[in-house]
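Support request, please re-run this one:
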Amino acid sequence: MWGRLIAKMCDLSDAYIYFLYVTYFGTKRSAFGHIGKNVIINPPSNLGNKKFIFIYDNVGIGPNCFISAINAKFICKGNCAIAEGFTVHTGNHANIAGKFVSEITEQNKPKGYDRDVVVEKDVWIGCNVTLLSGITVGRGSIIAAGAVVTKDVPFYSIVGGVPAKVIKFRWNTVEEIMKYEELLYPENERIPQDYIEKNLMKYGRKEN
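Re-run finished. Output below.
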């Protein structure tokens, strides 16, 4: 009813009014795979295949986000702050001999080009960040503004750039990370000490 009324007032087509309504006002919780408590997705937003979008408790996403989850899931596990201009692509382009790239569609694309994108808990994502197919953003990490993430982000790291690389860690010692984990998570959910040590050694400790 409101769409038709506005269309008559503004002399716009029903299709365009429907697009505006969905973009700014029409996101229903029931349309998603899961929406937790205290989730805010600021309009406008463009969300492809909401049934494959899973956002858990206490997540805020800034305006102008674009989440394409056509054939694989986007999962945000909660307690995350995501700035404006956030983009997610769970799919990827395929190469098919004898076809122009413009002829390759979701219907004729071979399987294996779509993979889940996962954002673990307590992640802070700056403005205009892009997450590409198959990556996992580790718990407690920070992604700098403008980054394009093509590989997994280690937990409690700070990454930036195109493609995104580890700049440093939020804390410099195993003890600091373990203390932070103790304050936020029950014992059975904490990252094991040996895994923290291996992770810091693998990516190199960056001093402040």
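The CA atoms of residues 44 and 102 lie 28 Å apart. The first helix runs from residue 2 to 10.
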